[in-house]
Specification:
Layout (H helix, E strand, L loop, with lengths): L4 H20 L10 H23 L5 H21 L3 H15 L9 H16 L3 H21 L6 H4 L9 H25 L3 H18 L4 H17 L3 H23 L6 H38 L4 H4 L19 H5 L9 H4 L10 H21 L6 H21 L3 H21 L6 H28 L6 H23 L15 H18 L7 H24 L8 H25 L1
Helix pairs in contact: 1-2, 2-3, 3-4, 3-5, 4-5, 5-6, 5-8, 6-8, 8-9, 9-10, 10-11, 10-12, 11-12, 12-16, 12-17, 16-17, 17-18, 18-19, 19-20, 20-21, 21-22, 22-23
């Protein structure tokens, strides 16, 4: 007896109900996050019972079709179990699916089940055993490659259940087949990242983005954000050419989306929500561009410092990943790195904004600087102090780094001082507006940076004073003392921020992230106290005694916390020397006073 059409009609209705429940699950209430998925599971279990009964009691004329249907049910039971965090149950259903379809994986009605199954195995093992996850995803890759060569149109899972399906809608079937494989590549990108093969992960990320672009199956905002995120990794590998290209693609897609928004005539809540997301992500991508410029200046500075003589001859660092010399056992190929581009997009306008080559001159550095400034202003317009304070603080810190990076290429000491002064104005303006109680981590960073900046200006002024043959004016001497005071003040604010309890005392142990900076702050205060210019012997005595006390504080802390000594070996050596020498100087000044 053959299977009645009523059974297939019933299964088709139930499967469509399952798909609807899974689609609606995103709207489930927070206190019942899986209610729709549990309902879908009940329907799937009913389908499973029907199909197993068909196999057990009736002669099946189309064994492959029934196998595809039952395999799909096992697959979706596995998916629901994984989604509801029942991993063991999910694994069991996927294994049942694998055992059932193993002889038919390359059949048109089964291949979509097979690809999805391998992807789900990959998801299942991604956290527990990334290497095992990779094995399953590579099986999906092999299956895709083999089946693609057959040119036989695959059958969508939903069409497997359709009793009236006659192989129509071939184009959609191929499109969905490609979409499932795109997910395979996306999961492989994550797995290679987990396996610390970052470059291979980046290649898979790019291929995923390219496939989404080619198919037109993507959300513009998500695609742009993912491309910009990938750019941040590429530039950290010195792949500035590829990073710029991905940022350009990100901006291009965002601009195309802006045109779509402009064309909307009905301005309602849905439109306002879309505009808010667009403004938010536009600001994020502007920040990514700014980070690109900042890192390009920073890496250029680092490159020049490491290769002071004949840089073009001796420096092998390239800003283009396609010229990278790969090891023989590298998991990526030169062709992989050469293909990190979106050939279907005309990105010349966006790429011409900024170079990808390392900076050598102040003129080139200023051009990059102006671009960074524009991008940060755009980001700052969205991330205001009143609405998104943490992000606003980070943007202000990026602005400060923008001046600092430009400063390296500036040879004129007066111009260097002006750039430092702009940093100070930025940071002091923001620190006045921020409550340290809520933004302590940022305040600590700003206090420390302010202290260093005042110290840097002090060094410039002191060098100029030493080089001058003229007698220094009282104004110059007062300026130097003011710089010292401001540097000490900010270092002291940084140190005092670690005080605890009602008595506001420093703990015996400072958090590891700040321990080195904490000790260096004491060290800098000690050194700064010795740089005050004064003829008053009593003031001189106070300053030298303060230096002595600060050097001792470093030594006392390192005695209590022995591992801390490893963080500041050079400074510690100087501290030991100074606590030996300074008592002699203190005695001498006291004698002069008496």
């Amino acid at each position: 007896m053959t299977v009645s059409k009523e059974i297939f009609v019933d299964l088709d209705e139930k499967f469509n109900k399952v798909l609807k429940l899974l689609e609606d699950s995103k709207y489930d209430p927070e206190n019942q996050p899986y209610v729709s998925k549990y309902a879908a599971r009940e329907t799937l279990l009913s389908m499973k019972a029907s199909l197993e009964n068909v196999i057990r009691t009736q002669s099946v004329s189309d064994k492959i079709k029934i196998t595809a249907m039952l395999g799909s049910v096992y697959l979706y039971l596995g998916i629901v179990s994984i989604d509801t965090e029942e991993l063991q149950s999910g694994e069991e259903y996927l294994i049942k699916c694998q055992d059932l379809i193993k002889e038919y994986t390359q059949e048109a009605q089964v291949v979509m089940v097979s690809l999805n199954m391998y992807n789900q195995f990959g998801i299942l093992w991604s956290q527990r055993d990334p290497e095992k996850s990779k094995t399953y995803l590579e099986e999906a890759e092999k299956l895709y490659t083999i089946y693609k060569k057959s040119n036989v149109p695959p059958v969508d899972i939903v069409d497997v259940f359709n009793p009236n399906f006659e192989g129509n809608n071939v184009e959609m079937a191929w499109k969905n087949f490609e979409k499932v494989y795109t997910f395979t590549l996306y999961y492989l990108a994550q797995i290679y990242g987990a396996l610390k093969d970052a470059l291979k992960s980046a290649v898979y990320c790019h291929i995923t983005l390219q496939r989404q672009l080619d198919s037109g199956d993507y959300e513009s905002i998500d695609w742009a954000l993912n491309a910009a995120t990938l750019s941040q990794f590429l530039m950290e590998q010195n792949g500035f050419k590829q990073a710029r290209h991905h940022l350009a693609a990100s901006s291009y897609i965002l601009d195309q989306y802006a045109k779509t928004l402009d064309a909307i005539t009905e301005r309602n809540e849905a439109f306002d929500a879309k505009m808010e997301v667009f403004k938010h992500r536009s600001a994020d991508i502007a920040r990514c561009w700014a980070k690109y410029g900042l890192l390009l200046l920073s890496k250029s500075k680092e490159r020049l410092l490491n290769h002071t003589d004949d840089i073009d001859k001796h420096c092998t660092i390239s800003s283009d990943l396609s010229t990278l010399t790969l090891d023989s056992d590298a998991s990526v190929t030169t062709a992989d790195l050469q293909n990190l581009q979106f050939t279907s997009l005309d990105l010349t306008h966006y790429e011409n904004q900024i170079t990808y080559k390392f900076i050598l001159t102040i003129q080139d550095a200023r051009h990059v600087f102006l671009n960074i400034q524009n991008w940060l202003q755009k980001a700052e317009a969205y991330y205001t102090l009143e609405t998104l304070a943490s992000d606003h603080l980070e943007i202000v810190q990026d602005k400060s780094q923008m001046y600092l990076n430009l400063l390296f290429f500036e040879e004129n000491p007066e111009n260097q001082s002006k750039l430092h002064k702009r940093r100070i104005d930025l940071l002091e303006n923001i620190i006045k507006k921020v409550n340290p109680q809520y933004y302590l981590q940022y305040c600590r960073q700003i206090w420390y940076e302010l202290a260093q900046t005042y110290s840097d200006i002090l060094n410039i002024k002191s060098d100029k004073l030493r080089e001058s043959k003229d007698r220094p004016s009282p104004h110059i001497l007062a300026k130097i003392n003011h710089l010292i005071e401001r540097s000490i003040y900010n270092f002291t604010c940084f140190i005092d921020s670690f005080k605890e309890g009602t008595k506001q005392e420093l703990p015996e142990k400072i958090p590891s992230d700040f321990e080195k900076a904490f000790l260096q702050a004491y060290f800098h205060i000690a050194a700064l106290n010795s740089r005050f210019i004064t003829l008053d012997k009593n003031v001189q005595l106070q300053n030298v005694e303060s230096s002595f006390n600060m050097y001792n504080k470093v030594l006392d802390y390192c005695k209590t916390n022995e591992k801390a000594a490893e963080l500041i070996p050079m400074e510690l050596s100087i501290c030991k020397e100074m606590v030996t020498l300074l008592p002699v100087k203190i005695t001498k000044i006291r004698q002069e006073i008496s």
